[in-house]
Write a structure and sequence with these properties.
Elements (H helix, E strand, L loop, with lengths): L2 H6 L2 H25 L8 H11 L3 H8 L7 H8 L16 H7 L2 E2 L6 H4 L1 H19 L5 H19 L3 E2 L8 H17 L6 H31 L12 H12 L1 H6 L3
Parallel strand pairs: 1-2
Helix pairs in contact: 8-10, 8-11, 9-10
C-alpha cells in the first residue's frame, strides 16, 4: 500500500477528520437555527441594505481595492500593535486620514496594542523563537507539525491585517497564533531549566510576572474603553482622545459625571 494511502487511513488522520466533522456539524447547526440554512452565516440582503444607507462609499472601495489588499498590511500592523494611527495632526485630522478614507471602510476605536494587552504571550513567543534552534537540534519538537500549525494559525492574522475594515473585536483572530507560540515558549523554558542559572531564572521570572500584570491591567483598560467607545465607522476627536472619552462618559454615566464635575 502506498505511503500516502496509509497516511490517509491512519488513526491520526481519522481522529483529526472526526474532530473536524464534529465542529463542522456544530457550525451547521448554529447557522441552521439562526438563518434556516447550515451553509449560511449572514443575511446578505440585510447587509447590503445597511451598507447602502450607512456607508454608501463601501461598494466603490470594494470595486477598486477589494476586501483584502496587501497595501493595507502596514496600516493593519500599526492598528493592532503600534497605535500611532490615531495621532491627531495640527490640522485636526488623524495621522493617516487620507489613506483611511481612500482604502478602508472603517477604523474603530479604541487605540490598542497587543504589546500592552498581551505582553506575556509575546514574551513566551519570543522565548520559543530564541530556543527553536536548540529544540530542533535536540529533536525535542516535531518541526513539521509545528510549522504546519504555525502557518495555519498565521493565515487569519494575515487576512485581518489586510482586511478593509479595522476593528477591536477582530483581535480574536490573533490569539490562536499568539497562544500557540506562547505554549511552545513555555515548553522551551521548562524542557531544560538547568540551562538558566539562578540570576537568569530570577530575571526571567520577574519578566514573566511583570508581563502578566501589565497585560491584566491594560486588557481591562482597553475593554473599558471599547465598551464606551462610539460604535461608528468614522470617529473624529478634534479636541483629543481624552476629551472624546470624557464626552462618552458624560453620555453613558451622566449622574457620575455630574458628581465628578466632568
Amino acid at each position: 500500500m502506498p505511503r500516502f494511502v496509509r497516511g490517509l487511513v491512519s488513526k491520526r488522520t481519522v481522529v483529526g477528520l472526526a474532530i473536524f466533522l464534529v465542529f463542522v456539524t456544530l457550525y451547521g447547526m448554529v447557522n441552521y437555527q439562526r438563518w434556516g440554512d447550515p451553509l449560511k452565516f449572514s443575511d446578505p440582503l440585510a447587509c447590503i441594505t445597511y451598507t447602502a444607507e450607512v456607508e454608501p462609499g463601501r461598494f466603490a472601495r470594494l470595486e477598486a481595492y477589494g476586501a483584502f489588499n496587501i497595501h493595507q498590511l502596514w496600516y493593519g500592523a500599526l492598528y493592532y500593535f503600534f497605535p500611532i494611527w490615531k495621532i491627531i495632526r495640527p490640522d485636526g485630522q488623524f495621522l493617516f486620514s487620507e489613506f483611511e478614507r481612500r482604502m478602508l471602510d472603517g477604523v474603530e476605536p479604541p487605540p490598542s496594542s497587543f504589546l500592552l494587552s498581551d505582553p506575556l504571550l509575546l514574551v513566551l513567543g519570543g522565548a520559543f523563537l530564541l530556543q527553536l534552534p536548540r529544540l530542533a537540534r535536540g529533536r525535542l519538537l516535531d518541526l513539521r507539525a509545528t510549522a504546519a500549525l504555525t502557518i495555519g494559525f498565521s493565515i487569519p492574522v494575515l487576512l485581518i491585517l489586510t482586511f478593509f475594515y479595522m476593528a477591536f473585536r477582530y483581535r480574536t483572530e490573533f490569539y490562536p497564533l499568539l497562544e500557540f507560540t506562547a505554549f511552545l515558549g513555555f515548553y522551551a523554558i521548562c524542557v531544560n531549566p538547568d540551562r538558566f542559572d539562578a540570576l537568569s531564572r530570577g530575571g526571567l521570572s520577574l519578566l514573566l510576572i511583570t508581563s502578566a500584570g501589565l497585560g491584566i491591567v491594560c486588557s481591562h483598560l482597553f475593554l473599558f474603553l471599547y465598551k464606551i467607545s462610539p460604535f461608528t465607522n468614522r470617529v473624529s476627536a478634534p479636541d483629543g482622545w481624552v476629551d472624546l472619552y470624557l464626552t462618552q462618559l458624560k453620555l453613558i454615566f451622566p449622574s457620575i459625571a455630574q458628581r465628578l464635575h466632568l
